[in-house]
Specification:
Chain lengths: 243, 277
């Protein structure tokens, strides 16, 4: 088996501005009103993901899952460590489905594909197929401000899969779709795995992680707790949150 | 295959790849510019017209205050054309600055999801602003020809070259503004005040003779203001005014300096933009 993604000692720190009420007494006592405290979002995270593998990531809110996906998508540069990615990645993050919500769904197809490096001619070749897959009907001409979260994820998934990715990064988006679309998107992802594509799957829906993934990584406070068999990891993670 | 490490800032050898990546996505830049123009048209009744109306109305206010009330018309022949040309040129630069910064702040979801050369966003903002600027030049002649009897001369042939200089300068400034605004949003509140100060320090409302005649000691400091040579170039191109010998070299020097500084600062920062969502 060949490696699709190799991550070594990834470290990401954020510098949020910690506010403390600036009383005069404290100002005099400390000589300053506020100070910067670093938050470590990812701390020495290392793993390998193979081609043809569905790799799940579980962890509580703030464990660093979304940050990690941004590093893998290479939209966020880590403060330390390195990531090696073999192949074309396509990203389906929770936050950024509507590229420009003022514009219609159709124009957002163009926007998303153009940003990913496709030409207008290439998009027009795929347009019918993208529209068919998303099954949005006439809603495709409406501004995306009018879309429900399920409609968002339909369009986003359809666009992502039509970018012919070798690696798909999925963050939670599919949990909002209806049952029909969920089944259809699962089938499409399985097809990608059969073609030795790679899927990194982040979800709070632990049952779907356990069923779908080949291996699971359990993240806690920016650190890798364990990597291994999905059932074992999910069970261990469940135990930890019960306590 | 691609590798990302902590020190991912493009080295000199990587610039060729960056530019190739930009060129590959040229359709993205124009599509984004068109989409934004369309959205602007849809949101307000007068739409794109505001691009021309804003500097035009501001010019008319200054025309009333300084031209009529303070009677500056004697001092600067063809005052309205002088004012309008300067105001449109200045407006192009300030709108590029704010547009460039907003192109990043307004597209954070795109930035978080998709890896592409971020410079595409300010470039598309600049395409949008250039369209508005060209429209305002038509309005300039529409008013300057009947009011001040200005006819475009052979100098107008130099417009494309001057426009290229101006766009290069504006892109550098837009990239620089975006680099500063993303981590320090406060700057967005400061920009209107800085640009107003810049406007008053530039020979737009007042004629350049204001400084050169009355305060010759200050004249040598004018070179510190990039608007001075740029506006001078435009007034030569648009209305056949006399061209100062230093304006060509001054404009080129400012454009190159700001462009290099802005692009370097922006591109080296690209991998950190998503931190500030």
């Amino acid at each position: 088996m060949t490696v699709a993604i190799a991550a070594r000692d990834i470290e990401v720190r954020f510098n949020p501005f910690i506010e403390k009420s600036p009383t005069l007494r404290r100002t005099i006592a400390r000589g300053r009103v506020s100070k910067r405290e670093e938050v470590v979002a990812l701390d020495g995270v290392s793993f390998d993901i193979m081609r043809g593998e569905a790799f799940g990531i579980v962890g509580s809110n703030g464990a660093g899952k979304s940050t990690l996906l941004r590093v893998l998508a290479r939209t966020l540069r880590p403060d330390g460590g390195s990531v090696m990615v073999h192949g074309r990645t396509s990203t389906l993050l929770q936050l950024g489905v509507g590229f420009n919500r003022q514009l219609s769904g159709r124009r957002n197809i163009y926007l998303g594909c153009l940003a990913n490096g496709l030409t207008v001619a290439e998009i027009e070749d795929r347009l019918d197929s993208i529209l068919d897959y998303a099954e949005l009907g006439t809603a495709i001409e409406r501004p995306m401000t009018t879309y429900s979260s399920g409609m968002f994820s339909r369009l986003a998934f359809s666009i992502s899969m039509h970018l012919d990715p070798d690696i798909l990064l999925v963050d939670e988006v599919l949990s909002v779709g209806d049952e029909d679309f969920r089944r259809k998107s699962m089938q499409t992802m399985l097809d990608l795995l059969v073609r030795s594509g790679t899927i990194v799957y982040v979800s709070h829906n632990l049952q779907s992680v356990e069923e779908f993934c080949d291996r699971v990584m359990w993240l806690e406070k920016g650190k890798v707790r364990n990597i291994g068999d999905p059932a074992e990891m999910v069970e261990a993670y469940k135990q930890s949150i019960k306590r | 295959m691609s590798t990302v490490t902590a020190s991912d800032a493009p080295r000199l050898s990587a610039w060729r790849g960056y530019v190739a990546d930009l060129w590959r996505r040229r359709e993205f830049a124009t599509y984004l510019a068109r989409a934004n123009l369309r959205a602007r048209n849809a949101n307000t009744a007068l739409g794109l017209l505001w691009w021309v109306l804003n500097p035009l109305l501001l010019s008319l206010v200054y025309f009333l205050v300084f031209g009529v009330l303070f009677n500056r018309i004697d001092e600067q022949p063809r005052y309205l054309a002088h004012l309008l040309s300067g105001m449109f040129v200045f407006n192009f630069t300030t709108l590029s600055m704010t547009g460039g910064a907003n192109s990043i702040l307004g597209n954070m979801s795109l930035l978080a999801n998709i890896r592409f050369p971020r410079l595409i966003l300010p470039i598309s903002a600049l395409i949008e602003a250039t369209v508005g600027f060209l429209a305002s030049l038509l309005v300039f002649y529409l008013l300057a020809i009947p009011v001040d009897g200005i006819l475009p001369g052979f100098e107008l042939l130099a417009l494309p070259a001057v426009l290229v200089l101006h766009v290069v300068f504006n892109l550098g400034l837009a990239a620089l503004t975006a680099r500063l605004v993303i981590p320090f949003r406060d700057i967005n509140n400061l920009i209107p005040h800085l640009t107003r100060l810049w406007l008053y320090l530039s020979p737009i409302i007042w004629p350049i003779t204001f400084v050169t005649d009355r305060a010759p000691w200050a004249a040598k400091w004018l070179v510190l203001n990039p608007m001075v040579p740029l506006v001078d170039l435009y007034r030569w191109v648009l209305m056949g005014d006399e061209l100062a010998s230093t304006s060509v070299i001054g404009s080129i020097a400012w454009a190159v300096a700001i462009f290099v500084l802005g692009i370097l600062a922006f591109v080296r920062y690209e991998g950190n933009m998503v931190r500030h969502i």
